[in-house]
Amino acid sequence: MVGEVLSREEIESLLGTMTAGSPKAGETTKDTEPAAPGTLSNPALEHVTPYDLKRPDRVGKEPMQVIRSLHEGLGRNLAVSLSALLHTIVDVKLTSVDQLTYSEFIFSLETPSCFNVLEATTLDGNLILDINPSILYPIIDRLLGGGNETVPVGRRPLTEIELRLAKRVTDIFLGEMRLAWRGVVDLELSVKRVESNPQLVQILPPNEVVVLASFETTVKDVHGMMNLCIPLNSIEQIGNKLTSNSRKSDGQQESSSGSKSELAQQLDRTQVEVVVQLAETRLLMGDLLGLRVGDVITTEQDSRQALPVTIEGVQKFTARPGTYKGRLAFQVEEAISPEE
After folding, report:
1. What is the C-alpha to C-alpha distance for residues 83 and 312, in angstroms, rounded to an integer?
2. What DSSP letter does each residue of 91-105 carry, written as one string?
3. Are residues 227 and 214 in contact, defined by beta-carbon separation less than 8 angstroms?
4. Dihedral through CA 81, CA 86, CA 90, CA 92, nearest 10?
5. Which of 180, 205, 227, 236 has the fewest CB atoms within 10 Å distance of its CB?
6. How confident is the model at residue 20 (pLDDT cuts 50, 70, 90)?
7. pTM, 2 dp
8. CA nearest 131: which of 222, 201, 214, 22?
9. Is the Cα torsion angle 64, 67, 71, 73 positive or negative in sign?
10. Do 136 and 255 reside in the same domain of the chain?
11. Closest CA relative to residue 128, chosen from 91, 169, 170, 65
12. How far apart are CA 257 and CA 251, in angstroms?
């Protein structure tokens, strides 16, 4: 066989056999299906998680859980403080804690907005508190004596008076944040400046990773967001403290008891509407138009029957009317259980 040379026909036949046994470009064999875009075709790599270089997770899972836990407590305490300030029910819920770039955070905000650049003496860099106009304007209207009517959201920068009123909300948020973070680090927070256009504030590089905590705030039927942005360098500075093991149990108990005491003080200052319904009846329109001073309206209410007492529209007690030191008053006789 040594020295034997294949003929031209034999070479073409061999090449034709090889071509027929291999799939053409864009074709697949019967036993092999094309891999979907973005999937791993190698079975050994099925448990590999894709990593997005544009949005890296620079903060670990445990620190993120601790941050979420801290701000869930902040939201609950903030709701109580704002309820005491506005004399109405305010609900604040932490909706998300995410990692994203600074540019993504900036372009997700409305313009104009109440964009507060915060300074923390114990942390590097500046924090950001953005209050959405859709919730800020109703709060300002409430502070100025407005009622329950819906307030149109203004698409303009805040005036000097509105900025002073917004500062009251910001100061409450910073105070609650200081209490929430007390078990991790002592924060001394202050507002460095307030801007109306977030896109003009470049305190961080656009691709810098930040941690964003978003709070949904509800006043009556109005909803809006408060966003707290914490830069990565501030998180890294206290990263060793953002673990469940580093938070001492005695410190948590002290914080819990202190929070309960402060909540009790804030609730003591909250005003609620108490109504005693004396009687109820129906009149014809003609009789109503003919009423004069001195007319007596009779009802089916028994004078010996206890009267219902409602608090914020919910009946809580029964009482009897009377006078006390020359003023009309009522004496509570019985508490209504929630089941009733």
Report:
1. 13
2. EEEEEEEEEEEHHHH
3. yes
4. -50
5. 205
6. low
7. 0.60
8. 214
9. positive
10. yes
11. 170
12. 10
Give me Rg for the CA atoms of the chain. 34
**Using CA atoms, how far apart are residues 147 and 331, in angstroms rounded to an integer?**
30
Q: Which residue has the tokens 């094309």?
A: 34
User: What's the number of domains the chain is made of?
Assistant: 2
Residues 168 and 317 in one domain: no
Rounded to 10 degrees, the C-alpha dihedral 14/16/22/25 comes to 140
Nearest to 203 by CA among 130, 125, 105: 125
Q: Which sign, positive or negative, has the C-alpha torsion 230, 233, 237, 239?
A: positive
- Each residue's pLDDT tens digit, 232-285: 888 888 877 877 655 543 344 444 556 667 667 767 777 788 888 888 888 889
Say how far apart CA 242 and CA 320 lie, in whole Å. Answer: 56
- Looking at 219, 243, 268, the residue that finishes a domain is 268
Sequence letter at residue 74 = L
Q: What are phi and psi of 147, to 5 degrees?
A: -95, -140
pLDDT in tens, 121-170: 888 889 999 999 999 998 998 898 877 677 667 788 889 999 999 999 99
Nearest of 77, 85, 75 to residue 255 by alpha carbon:
77
For residue 124, give the amino acid letter. D
Token pair belonging to 67: 């941050």
Domain span at residue 152 reads 61-268
Give me 266's structure tokens: 């804030």
Cα 224 from Cα 113, distance rounded (Å): 12
**CA-to-CA distance for 132 and 225, rounded, in angstroms?**
5
**Cis? peptide before 112, omega within 30° of 0:** yes
CA–CA separation, 67 vs 335, rounded Å?
Answer: 42
